[in-house]
Amino acid sequence: MQTSGVRSPAIPFIVGLVRATRKLPLIGQAPAEKRLSASARAGEPFWQTLLEMKTDNNRRFFGLFGLDESMVDGKTVLDLGCGYGGNVLAWADRHPSASFVGLEPFPHVMNIAERAGISFGTKNTRFVTGLGETLPFGDNTFDLIVTWDVIEHVRDPMRVMQEITRCLKAGGVSLGVFPPYHNPTAHHLGYATRLPFLHLVFSPDVLVAAVNRLIEAGEVDLSRQPAPQCGPWGRKTLPSLNGTTGADWNELTRQLKSRYAVAVRNTYVPFGERFAVLRIFNRIMLRLFRDSDLFCGQIRTVLHKEG
Hints:
2 domains
């Protein structure tokens, strides 16, 4: 068994806490992650894509901005960070007059999405391997670019937004949703636990060491996690996250508006949006402590490229 070089009494405490709460609703292992077990994958060649299609995300996305999904009709749409293509394929099926492109940096992921599309007989989609920081498309290509839980993962959020701006047609729109890093559950440890505030109490090194103990024990079906690195904001963060906070994002979009002909609107959505009491409490706290990540579930950003 491999062991981490990190030593802290907090590590066995976290491991015990995760084990004790793993099956509890709301704070235990995320239901979606449970469905990713080996038994659930058996016999499904595109199980990743199908899992994405079975969630309600693709039906909810446009409504998050008070928009109707029919806005995509006749448009050219890029889903930047499309995962295994589930949303792209669901939207394409419902809107045959639109043209959809899905992009991810991993060739094997795009291969699965492409094969799923062929299997489903989808004609108005294509999947491309590439990075958000260097989009492999010409200027003024898309009417609409969407990102769902992507901005928190990219290496250089400003560069990604510059590329989105470049690739949008004049009058085009970008819609994006992501959780700020100091949001209660933005640690993205749902594959093991949804316990809130872990990344605000414990260092990234300690959390990764605890998670790797669970992985090594066979309790989490995941590859061993790499050591935390410093993100673009100069702070050490958990693996695959860049640590973008609400304050970082406000400054980034302010700079974006000063350099480009774009209009940007950021909306802070209270944490626990689906639970009335929690939503009301956090809405009040967001007004008292403006744009505080602690009470924010999502940042929703609408960018309009001026014509």
